[in-house]
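Thread: Cadmium-translocating P-type ATPase, structure

OP (GT): Posting the sequence first so everyone is looking at the same thing. Length is 613 residues per the record. Can we get the structure tokens written out before standup tomorrow? I want them in the notebook alongside the other entries.
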Amino acid sequence: MITVHRRWAVPAVAGALIAASWVVDAAAGGHPAGRWLMLAAAVVAGVPVARSAVRAVRLRTVGIDLLVTVAAAGAVAIGNYWEAAAVTTLFAIGHALEDATLARTRSALAELVALAPDVATVVRDGTQVTVPAREVAVGETVVVKHGARVPVDGVVLTGRAAVDEAAITGESIPAEKAEGSTVFAGTVAVDGFVTVRAAGVGADTTLARIVHRVEEAQDAKARTQQFMERFSRWYTPGIIVLALVMGIATRDLELALTLLVIGCPGALVISVPVALVAGIGRAARDGILIKGGEFLETAARVDTVALDKTGTLTTGRPELTDVVARGDWSPDEVLGWAARAEAGSEHPLARPVVAAALARGLAVGAVPDDVRAVPGRGIVATVDGREVVVGTPELAAGAKDQWAEQASARLAEEGRTPLVVALDSAVIGAIGVADGIRPEAAALVAALRGVGVSRVLMLTGDQARVASAVAGRVGIADARAGLLPEEKLDVVRALQAEGRVVAMVGDGVNDAPALALADVGIAMGAAGSAVAVETADIALMTSRLDRIPQAIGLAKRTARVMRQNIAIALVTVALLLAGVLVGGVTMAIGMLVHEASVLVVIANGMRLLRPTR
């Protein structure tokens, strides 16, 4: 409240003095007191402006404050106290309104900061103790009751709760939390009761990292903003020279002073930053962290999106889908031998094979007698003195085996990753493992095209038939398969060589080289990942695919608002200059229209704060 009162103190006092001057003039008809009150109003409103101008000049900066100061001082010098008071008071009112509305555009950051709880309930020596949240130690047990805000990042030890994670992920539906679930500081237990083992406290929480990233991003300058600042450094002295030349040429000091006032580039200077701050703030509310103005501006130009398959278009959780037995072998026998071999493998496809066998009640055992991994092809294991091979047809069958080839082809065409199983060099069957396609994957591709992305690719290390099947189901025509990380890098580089602006989408820190090389790297599911939050150009706190087109669409909206604001500022100045030169625009009217243009620019930028969903 103190800040608000101080913001409006100067315009309020100056406005009261102007009103008093009018009352005196109306009552006493030209009494000198009326002029002195008007001069006092000009001094009250003008002194803060003059101080800012002096500070700027000391830093070798010629800014808006200097133009207003010179114009007001000139108006006083020629005895036009009303013009001086009107110009300085309108400028003070405009500055106060500008501060208020800019504070509104930064409200997303303020709301995030307010989410950090001040206290936490921890269990110490068997007793619940309330302590400042910053004093909670990593590893301590924190109690989160119904309706309470979670004070730390951590893992649920006991209990169940529905937790509102909108502040972190932008999701409106509460997430169910139980033993082993991850919770984040700043989220709210809307129902239930849990105890949490603290893993991240204070500045190490996901919320703190988000606040830090948004704060940095809102202060970071886009290329357009940097250009406008360079432009204004030349534009402002240019206006001073123009006013001086016109004053000398016409011998009309009031005309020269009016040119100074209406030439103020206030709307121009504020046009870009207000849009950037509002756009980045809106994105943060929706669980989209944008690293800075430069990346938001680049995202607005994206015309090509490269999507990682595993974990992005698919769930990232492979499951066994098919068991095909050969000859007299039964499906359970094929799966049993495969699972006993895979029990000694750390490959991601080994887990669903072993899990499926256990679910069917098959004996898997501890570990095989011997396991040898063949990179990119499969494994060779010794189980009870027998050789078991699980992998590609070439590895499992040795010489060309038509049955193995055909079974693999059928599974691959259905979007499964085929694994041929051989026992003592004889193929006994094949199994299919699939990473389920996200239900919203097809809608993602359509939504990307809806926000102006002309080309969508899928990049994967999986085999061509699997990649083709997945791409066909989600509507992607260009699928690149069998790619190593460095080969994904080559694809991105080739697209850029064609003149395309490329966004690479991956889950977390996977595919790091391609994410780094792309014009915009978008990391999905970054909540809780310090690396993703700090390094990605755009970090999506949730794994929802609709956040990708939403982020690009918001960037394009922000870019449009920036262009609109620049146009509004330039057209206003051009019309005012024309009005002054042909007559009819006074100093007070010029300042009124100028301040109105500043507010229009800010209001236009604030439209970005509206939800996009």
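GT: Both are above now. Quick notes for whoever picks this up: The two ends are 33 Å apart (CA to CA). The chain is about 55% helix and 20% strand.
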